[in-house]
Write a structure and sequence with these properties.
Blueprint: E1 2-5, H1 7-17, H2 28-35, E2 38-39, H3 49-58, H4 64-73, E3 77-80, E4 83-86, H5 90-98, H6 104-112, H7 114-127, E5 130-131, H8 154-163, E6 167-173, E7 176-181, H9 182-185, H10 195-210, E8 212-213, E9 228-232, E10 238-241, H11 243-247, E11 257-259, H12 270-277, E12 299-303, E13 306-316, E14 321-329, H13 335-352, E15 355-356
Parallel strand pairs: 1-9, 14-15
Antiparallel strand pairs: 2-4, 3-4, 5-7, 6-7, 8-10, 9-10, 11-12, 12-13, 13-14
Helix pairs in contact: 5-10
Organism: Microbacterium rhizomatis
InterPro entries: AlkZ-like
Protein name: Winged helix-turn-helix domain-containing protein
Amino acid sequence: MTHQLTRDEARRIIVRAQLLDADRPGDVVEVAEQICWIKIDPTATIAPCEDTELWSRIGWSYEPGQLKKAVEIDRLLFEFDGAFRPISLLPLMLPKMRTWPTRESTKQWLEANDAFRSDVIARLRAEGPLLTSDIPDTAQVSRAPDGWSGSNQVPIMLDFLVRQGVVAVAGRHGRHKRWDLAERVYPQNLPEYDADEAAHLLEERWLRASGLARPHWYWSGVGKTSGEAAVVEGSKNTFRVDPEAIAALEQDDGGRVAFLSPYDGMLFDRKRLEEVFEFTYVLEQFKKKADRVYGFFAHPILIGDRFVGMLDAEVDRERGELRVNAVHEFMPLEPEEDEMVRAEIAELADWLGVGLAEPR
């Protein structure tokens, strides 16, 4: 069976799956369990990505300390590959982690640095948790700097050991990771799955998080047999849709305003944004200032299930103010919509604990 969806239906499915409808979630763990992936990024014209992503869903009751507690004390979330994920995903990821790496060059580097690998594990066992800077570089073979990593081989080894499920991020000191053995960070007695079952269940979780997804191992994590097939008016793609999302289409919780961090998972699949939301999103962070249209780190504005503009705003920490440089409207907002956006900006300032700067 292939579901025939209008754009309106497709948008509602996605918005609800991403917890951006009017029915707000209650806490950090509820958000993580549903959307599966909370991006970590320090760019903070307003607030770090992980905090903005949670505030845009939970609202004023969210505090950054709640995320830290869920990760470092309650161990209900864990950090992996630049994102916080619910611990319920870990058993589904472990089978693949145990067979990593598959790339021959990575295998060769690990084999050549077997003694270095043992050194890192032994130091963590004896002294962990440790910052990266606390671990000496005893690599026998070095990888050349690639623009992301420097000459120090310790971050590379730690990253590889995390991907193998041997070490884990135990927490952070500011923005710096603290590392320990995975056996001391991850819960014990997790469910066990074989590789095929784990991969299938993981794809189903990613589909539930997306609501509606283009099947692609990287862009969505959703396979061609996940959920059910769907086509959307105006699109030539065949999507996969969560059957439970189809069943919930008759429910209408109404819409609200949401400001999305440029690294929000909702924005990750640019093609889906174009075909379903008719929204072409370009991150201007790495463009020259003269080439920017909306601003260095402008946040897309969602009202209900439509992207209506871009918020170019930043916190002036010296003055203790949220400064709104511009609200770029794709089409003129209705008076009620304009009032909703202004109210959400005021809520944002209150949440940040700063004043709202007077327009220049």
